[in-house]
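User: Sequence recovery, please. Input:
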């Protein structure tokens, strides 16, 4: 178990060059670390025109051409010369840095990226909405907070803060060193790639701008329907059962907050948007996988005879996981 963010990064396998499998670690909390630190660690040089050609590849090209004379020991262009200061494998490898058409597109993709972490703490107004048992907070508040955290990470590196001191310096909500390292590396990747060497202890440095597909869906990708079912009426109480469905038509998992409103003659809250579901059951915050449908069956009871109900995704309160960011095969 790593004790510090820098040890978490050092524990990630490093590449030896050439084509090989990418290292992937299961778990959303480590996803960003793997993407930001190891996804480009092992790849075929031919896959990326910005990646220097390895010495082994250059040597093969020489041996494949019998008419080409062998380089002399003092030849400065000898790719196998270990003393050659221009040897392309001397320095750290390049890293892809996402480029966007606007700051808002960058923020949207970053929030979508770190929202996949599964260890956001509960019991805090800002981050609880992304915890396993949410009860307070809003998704938009979470998004604003993590963007602010990311920019604070960049400010910390700009001020000379050591990698292991960054979590405390920016008051990062994540507590596990692997999670902290993952968030820090992603923050640097999106907002201050020039600090990558400082964040990874020199493992990666040269940033290569990489255009992104700004494909994060909007709320229209979530199709909502609701229907009133059986009713039960008496002199003093009226009950209406209902079934609500939210279908995620996108190719990304989504976290969303729902709202509901009721209509009834004499009801003081007639047509006003409020919490979704039965009071206190926490059904208003849902995660729906790509292509799946969330179904909720509830019951409304009161002194009014309920005519109808409507359900919607609360405006701005949703995040699609992993959209807008393509660091490599996932």
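Assistant: Recovered sequence (330 residues):
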């Amino acid at each position: 178990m790593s004790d510090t963010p820098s040890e978490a990064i050092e524990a990630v396998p490093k590449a030896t060059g050439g084509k090989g499998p990418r290292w992937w670690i299961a778990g959303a909390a480590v996803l960003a670390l793997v993407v930001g630190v190891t996804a480009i660690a092992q790849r075929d040089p031919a896959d990326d025109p910005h990646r220097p050609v390895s010495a082994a590849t250059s040597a093969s090209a020489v041996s494949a051409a019998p008419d080409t004379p062998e380089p002399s020991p003092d030849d400065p262009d000898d790719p196998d010369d270990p003393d050659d200061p221009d040897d392309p494998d001397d320095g750290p490898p390049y890293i892809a840095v996402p480029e966007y058409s606007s700051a808002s597109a960058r923020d949207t993709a970053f929030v979508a990226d770190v929202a996949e972490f599964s260890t956001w703490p509960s019991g805090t107004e800002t981050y609880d909405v992304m915890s396993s048992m949410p009860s307070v907070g809003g998704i938009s508040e979470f998004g604003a907070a993590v963007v602010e955290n990311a920019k604070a990470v960049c400010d910390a590196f700009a001020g000379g803060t050591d990698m292991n001191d960054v979590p405390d310096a920016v008051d990062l909500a994540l507590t596990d060193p692997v999670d902290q390292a993952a968030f820090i590396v992603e923050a640097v990747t999106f907002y201050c790639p020039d600090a990558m060497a400082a964040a990874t202890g020199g493992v990666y440095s040269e940033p290569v701008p990489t255009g992104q597909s700004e494909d994060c869906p909007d709320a229209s990708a979530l199709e909502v329907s609701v229907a009133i079912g059986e009713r039960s009426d008496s002199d003093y109480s009226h009950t209406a059962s209902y079934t609500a469905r939210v279908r995620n038509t996108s190719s990304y998992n989504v976290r969303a907050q729902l709202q509901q409103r009721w209509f009834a003659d004499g009801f003081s809250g007639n047509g006003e948007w409020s919490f979704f579901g039965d009071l206190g059951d926490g059904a208003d915050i849902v995660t729906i996988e790509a292509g799946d449908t969330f179904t909720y069956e509830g019951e409304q009871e009161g002194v009014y005879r309920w005519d109808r109900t409507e359900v919607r995704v609360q405006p701005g309160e949703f995040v699609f996981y992993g959209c807008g960011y393509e660091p490599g095969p996932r």
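The chain is about 25% helix and 20% strand.
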